[in-house]
Design brief:
Blueprint: H1 5-12, H2 18-29, H3 31-34, H4 39-46, H5 50-59, H6 65-86, H7 94-115, H8 118-129, E1 133-137, H9 141-153, E2 160-161, H10 166-174, E3 180-186, H11 192-204, E4 207-212, H12 218-222, E5 225-228, H13 239-261, H14 263-278
Parallel strand pairs: 1-2, 1-3, 3-4, 4-5
Helix pairs in contact: 4-5, 6-7, 7-13, 8-13, 9-13, 10-11
Length: 282
């Protein structure tokens, strides 16, 4: 696996059964022990069948327990490094706290970059490039990422639409056609409002690019292309804060890719924007 087992488990956690969540919790809490134990020892401790643990390792992307155990041993040092900045301690100085936040953000970007696939980036670029209009949707903290995307894509040749008001977002989605596309952002991928928007987009026939932290979330299942943002957190930061850094970077990547699909038109768009803005900076 290219991403840490710890983050893979966190990404899929909400879609595990109760028994699978118990296995996941054990691995997260005893990562050092798991890599040095047999499947029978782990199954006995969890009071489950060997086959149950074996099937869990397959569910998170491995060929079986042996493959999983090797990956655990390889990543053991990485997991130890993560724990250094995972929690802010009471006795930490302000500088140490800030450094841990930076370390967490760096880790978030590194882990998210490992999940990027060229075919997904190409497909997303082609979707935007072949669409007449681009719509951006997000609520709560994700709306901030959507607004940032709107600010960027305004400089591109494609007509772009975004509103901070959810009711207006619903009105916008009602006007979408199969010639349009949407980028929909949600940290959990489970927001009722966002899923409602995605279903309406799907009904219109428009393509959907999803940016989320949950691979098996309802929103991810509605996407034509899905980009995952993964993050380790410090104790006093919500998950959405760290994942936002990765989501912004994914949006930046899509913007740059689309611009290079349309270099001449993009340069004209940017020139027009710069010309207008320069008038108020003198």
């Amino acid at each position: 696996m290219t991403v840490s087992i710890r983050l893979q488990i966190k990404t899929m956690y909400n879609d595990f059964s109760i028994k699978e969540q118990a296995i996941a919790d054990y691995i997260l809490e005893n990562s050092g022990k798991v890599g040095h134990s047999s499947i029978s020892d782990l199954a006995n401790e969890l009071e489950i069948a060997d086959s149950t643990f074996f099937q869990f390792t397959k569910k998170i992307g491995f060929n079986g327990f042996k493959d999983f155990k090797i990956a655990m041993l390889i990543q053991e040092n990485d997991l130890s490094a993560i724990s250094i900045h995972e929690n802010i301690q009471k006795d930490d100085t302000e500088l140490t706290m800030a450094q841990k936040v930076f370390d967490s953000n760096i880790s978030t970007l590194t882990d998210t970059r490992k999940l990027l696939r060229e075919e997904d980036l190409k497909q997303a670029g082609n979707i935007i490039n072949s669409s007449k209009r681009l719509f951006l949707f997000g609520v709560g903290g994700s709306e901030i990422v959507a607004t940032d995307a709107y600010h960027k894509f305004l400089r591109s040749p494609i007509p772009v639409f975004h509103s901070t008001d959810y009711h207006i977002q619903l009105m916008e989605v009602s006007l979408m056609t199969n010639e349009d596309c949407a980028i929909i952002i949600s940290h959990t991928g489970r927001s009722k409002e966002t899923i409602c928007i995605a279903k309406f987009v799907k009904e219109s026939g428009a393509k959907i690019i999803v940016v989320t932290s949950q691979a098996s979330s309802p929103l991810a299942k509605l996407g034509d292309v899905v980009f995952l943002s993964l993050s380790e957190e410090t104790e006093f930061r919500s998950e959405a804060l760290a994942s936002r850094i990765a989501q912004l970077s994914i949006i930046d990547s899509l913007y740059v890719i689309f611009r290079f699909f349309n270099q001449e038109k993009s340069e004209k768009s940017i020139t027009k924007v710069r010309h207008v803005i320069s008038g108020i900076k003198k």
